[in-house]
Design goal:
Rossmann fold, elongated, alpha/beta, binds cytidine-5'-monophosphate, single chain
């Protein structure tokens, strides 16, 4: 994961009851080593005091365009200088309207207008205000302008109602900020990822599948997006929500996954096969539900295509990464797989540890040997893995003749 200690974030706080959550957000960011510059609107000061924010951030808080502490009267330029991003949390309906229309009549709105860095806003308001046509228009406009809208969530509101408009929790906003601050190691790269299990039909209601949850593949998709890549995620059946910025293709069977991969691999710079693809499918799934009888029932299984080996065997393949889940002889079996499928990088993990869990430990096998990423949440491992892939990809690219673009044009 990126070291956030070098990072500077401007946290804008506007006047809503959720301002109290901004105090916790400062605490979480400061704990990561981020330098947090708090800027509050006048009405925010009615909900939480600058003294609280100053104590938590360890820095003076600014509320006024004409603060005498900024000698050249250019607080709107001075405060965002060197900032990795600006986040406004909470962002009221009024502040969103200001931003959407380019108003700059106080320090925070002027600072947002004068920025050079990404802007994230975490709306917080009563559900009717959130549903109001004007807010809908403003939010749509902000999204078009490239502002990142975090939430809101649905639930109990301070006004006693229940509905959409609650600000995300401090931890969620912190995680989004953390994602935005990741180094853009894969900027401009197209990454194709498969994730989850496949489902091979036996009849209209039954099938063969496995315990893969898709968590690792989805975490890698998220990490690749955070690293600046454009991501296509081909996913078997899971209960997970795909990252909003990924292009998602939902499939069931290995054959459907193969078709989706063939469709997207043409433009891919990197292919990461995280899916637990069924090795076999039923030769002739029954069109009708199979009835129970006293006799034994034999299913004929036929091998599925090896999607990873196909991608790696293309005339100009993308940089291919495979995953090997083994229940024994981890390194030996994973390395044999790497050689057989001719992939530059194989990620090996113990099936009994990895499948369905939130944590994992993986070993990376490539031409330079083996490298272990110690046990950590899959979200953390995904970032480490993406950083490793980016490094191998760029060194592979410089040793290949021709550019990645030549390869892309000539592929498939
Ligand atoms: O199943 P196996 O252990 O061979 O899986 C290793 C790698 O190969 C994984 O990355 C998996 O996504 C890929 N694979 C595939 N098509 C298959 C079987 C596996 O792409 N039919």
């Amino acid at each position: 994961m990126a070291d956030l200690r070098q990072q500077r974030v401007v946290l804008g706080v506007t006047g809503g009851i959720a301002a109290y959550k901004a105090a916790e957000l400062v605490r979480l960011l400061v704990k990561d080593g981020v330098e947090v510059q708090v800027v509050m609107t006048q009405s925010a000061c009615s909900f939480i005091t600058p003294a609280t924010m100053q104590a938590l951030s360890g820095r003076p808080v600014f509320t006024d365009m004409w603060d005498p502490r900024v000698s050249d009267n250019m607080a709107h330029i001075e405060l965002s200088r060197g900032a990795g991003l600006i986040v406004v949390a909470p962002a009221t309906a009024d502040f969103l309207a200001k931003l959407a229309n380019g108003h700059a009549d106080d320090l925070l709105s002027t600072l947002c207008m004068a920025r050079e860095c990404p802007l994230l806003v975490a709306p917080a308001m009563n559900r009717q205000m959130w549903d109001n046509q004007a807010t809908r228009r403003n939010v749509a406009q902000l999204a078009r302008d490239g502002v990142v809208i975090l939430g809101p969530a649905s639930g109990d509101q301070a006004c006693g109602e229940t509905g959409m408009g609650r600000m995300l929790e401090a931890q969620q906003i912190h995680d989004e900020i953390n994602s935005s601050l990741q180094p853009k190691l894969l900027a401009g790269k197209q990454v194709l990822i498969t994730a989850g299990p496949t489902f091979e039909a036996i009849d209209p209601v039954r099938g063969i599948t496995n315990r893969s949850s898709g968590k690792m593949g989805y975490a890698i998709a998220r990490a690749a997006l955070d690293a600046g890549a454009q991501v296509t995620l081909v996913s078997g059946p899971t209960n997970l929500e795909a990252p909003a910025a990924a292009k998602i293709e939902r499939i069931e069977s290995a054959n459907e996954m193969f078709a989706a991969v063939k469709k997207h691999v043409r433009g891919a710079d990197i292919y990461i096969g995280v899916a637990a693809v069924a090795d076999y499918r039923v030769a002739k799934p029954s069109e009708q539900k199979i009835k129970r009888t006293a006799a034994n029932l034999a299913l004929e299984l036929v091998p599925n295509p090896d999607i990873l080996a196909y991608c790696a065997g293309l005339p100009r393949p993308p940089f291919c990464v495979g995953f090997a889940a083994e229940s024994q002889k981890l390194h030996e079996f994973a390395d044999a797989k790497r050689r057989r499928k001719k992939v530059p990088l194989m990620v090996a993990n113990l099936a009994q540890d990895a499948i369905g869990a939130d944590d994992n430990e993986v070993t990376l096998l490539d031409d330079s040997g083996t490298h272990t990423l110690p046990r950590a949440p899959k979200t953390v491992l995904a970032r480490q893995l993406v950083a490793y892939i980016a490094k191998l990809y760029s060194s592979a690219k410089t040793t290949r003749s021709g550019t990645a673009k030549d390869a892309k044009d000539a592929k498939v």
